[in-house]
Amino acid sequence: LDESINMAEVLAIAKHFNGIPSSYSEVEVLSQQSEYVQVVAYDYRTVGLKSDGTVWDFEVTPKQIDGLSNIKSVFIDREHGILAVTKDDGRILQNTYSEGYKDFTKLKHVKKIVGSSRNTLYLTEEGSVFASGINDGFLGIEKGSISEWTVVEPVEVNLGGRKAIDIAAGNGFSLVVIDEGTVYGFGLNDY
Fold it and tell me: Over the stretch 150-164, which tens digit does the pLDDT of each residue have?
C-alpha cells in the first residue's frame, strides 16, 4: 500500500479460514491511534505491520514482536512462519526461535514476498523474481535447470530480460506482472 490504513476509519475483520470458507473471527481494534500499512494472516495467525516499522501479533491482543523493527513488509506461512523484509537493505529475516530473527536467505533488496503451501516468490526492487518451494512447475524454473525437488534457497526465475512489477501466488500456481503490463503464469495446468 502507498498510504497507511487509519484503523479508526476501517472496520477490521480478520478471516481465519480452516477449510470452511464461511468461518471467520472478528478482531477487536484496541488502539485506533496506530496506523497499520499491512496485515497478513495464515491459518490461525495474523500479524500487522505498522507505519513505524514494528510488527505486531494479533494472537490474543495486539503485542509487538520483539526483534522486528525497521521492517517494510511481512509474510507468513506454515513452512517459514513470519518472514520480515528490512527497510534499509531489503534483507529477509526469519525467527530461528533459539537465536531470534536472523537472515533467512542471501537475497537483498526484496520488495515483496507472496506464496502458498507449495511455493514462495520474492520480488526485488530491481524487478527480478526469485522462487523457492516445490520444484514441480510452480516455481517458473526450467525442468532440468535444478535437480532438487524442494528448492530451499531462492532461485532466480528467467524472465527473458524483462522486469517484474508485481507478483502473486496461489495453491499450485504463480503469477508475475511484467513492466509492460503482461501477466505470466506458471504452475499446475489442470484448469
Answer: 667 888 988 989 999
